[in-house]
## 1
Amino acid sequence: MSHTAFIGIGNMGGPMARNLARSGKTVKVFDLSPTAMQVAVDGGAIPSQSAGQATQGAATVITMLPEGKHVKAAYMEDGGIFDHAEPGTLFVDCSTIDVATAREVAAAAKARGFRMIDAPVSGGTVGADAATLTFMVGGDAADLDEARPQLEKMGKLIVHCGGNGNGEAVKICNNMIGGIAMIAVSEAFSLGQRLGVSVEDMQRVIASSSGSCVAVTDYLPLAGPTPKSPANFGYRPGFMTKLMLKDMRLSQLAAVETGQPSPLGAQAAMLYAMAEQEGLGELDFSSIIKLFNKGIA
Ligand code: NAD
């Protein structure tokens, strides 16, 4: 049975590769970070010296890399994935990247006789760990059908959204909402505290009211009521502020390209940029509340 290569095994790719390996699949991994490699190997994956070496003989190559430039380089640079893959290999890029790069790399793959889908995810590190991710997929339906058994080992909802790049389109729209909502919750909870209300009382009411959203029910930017949220662990990510900033910029780029007015998205991108400048870039994005709750105990 041919193996699956998994390139990029950080906060998300690490647990995803582990779940795939646990399902009985042979998974060969590569990451630039030795720590990430060790964690994946401890989880049952086989280490490789390079992306190319992991790719040799693979039927499927899955990538989970930070940005479009990393994805493009991993597939297209000399000695990269394209140069080592067998004809017909199925590439599954799960990274969150810009739509244009996703379409460019998929077209280049097809021109070289490969197949490619974009399959970005939502559900965060908790979903990656529990194999409950949502995959939003762009590409040919037949290619998704081939990838589906493996995606099912890492997630629970898989939605085909159309042609190449459409998975990324849905992903950046979703994160635009999630990023804006976290700021709204941060502002509102800071205001409530200044008015003398406890975080617990506010969370209890708002979680069942019209202000409810994931940032209130499961991912509160304050410690206490939602025990799994990063606020309980010193804002250890989770999903880093710098990655949320990247995604907000991706949606703003797409808004400019399509002429779509996006005033709240633009404002949110600005606020995440400010958060990064305040030194919150490597913390979870929910730490953006620190811009609003200065002086509140
Ligand atoms: P991460 O930084 O933890 O992991 C990325 C990994 O890629 C790192 O370990 C890095 O060493 C590795 N890498 C970079 N370039 C490489 C290369 N050329 N070859 C091999 N490895 C390379 O980031 P993450 O949180 O796992 O996010 C990965 C992607 O998933 C991003 O696009 C992010 O936006 C998206 N995402 C993250 C979350 C989340 O909650 N963390 C949720 C949904 C989507």
## 2
Amino acid sequence: MSALAARLIERIRAEGPISIAEYMRECNAHYYATRDPFGAAGDFVTAPEISQVFGELIGAWCADYWERMGAPDPVLLVELGPGRGTLMVDALRATKHVPGFHDALKLHLVEQSPVLRKLQQEKLADYAPTFHDDTARLGFDDEVRNLPAGPLLVVANEFFDALPIMQFEQHELQWYERLVAWEDERLVLRRAPHHLPEIPNGARPENEGKIRAISPALEQAAEHIGVRLRRHGGAALIIDYGYFPAALGDTLQALRHHRPVSILESPGEVDLTAHVDFARLAQAGEHGRAQAHGPITQAQFFIALGIAERESALLKAASPAQQETIRSGVQRLIDPAQMGALFKVLALTRQGGPIPAGFAA
Ligand code: SAH
């Protein structure tokens, strides 16, 4: 048994069952802090690792929004959860020739994991990134001001799905939180003994046994981004798998070596994620008084940004073997049966600010 599993079990035995959010927070902090989870040898693959076009077009989107804002100098380029740093490397390479953009940008990376920070630092050394632990300490709110003043561009791919969620189950027309408990020498999911005094959506007979999820961490991060955009201007681009409109259901999942496993198996050794509730994400940004655009599907977004043209340009310079990789990578990003429809894109901007590329006015 891992040290984390032992510590969690000890805690649950002493204090009683804990929230799924608390379990997920502890597990994911340990998981990311102790490995590079990406790629064939790891647990999962993300879009920047599938095709360079992903980061390139996001870079172009950022540079375009910067120009639409009037090319402010400095501008903060902030990535949440940069993983191996691949998206940002591709984005920066693709925007090298945008006049003034690189001179104006200050790179800020929000990353908890020391292992991944090291990778990011190596790949992005030329841009001297400033690291931050988490979004709450970035200075999106009034108390903490770790991020300097000024307009910003925020990019987050597959960041929000890793933030802790709480789950609630409807039972006899009441909502009960689902907790992680220790019974018969193993971790199990249990309904809390007491129901919630009040719930936002109301309970309905047809929803008996159904599950709903909320993520206070996701909502807080989105609201802070909204506040920051309102004060300083700029835009945030959030890409993730998730649902829109709101829906009931259990989307909490664990992956190990690209296969689904139980979320209670090997705490901290498997990747725990939940589908992002895009309606809540947009709403939280709007609470911070930013303007939400979308969500639209990943396919709609990249087609609008000209993924076909970028693919053709790459194909011209590629060997036959490379051409196959380029084609299948692009296909995987936009095919609705692969990542094109499940993945969605939401933008937040200052109210009345320029409309971001890819989103209808
Ligand atoms: N954007 C990358 C990586 C996605 S995986 C890509 O597309 O490949 C999630 C990333 O978010 C990892 O870098 C992980 O270490 C980071 N992360 C997860 N939870 C975090 C948190 N609460 N605070 C800061 N970083 C976090």
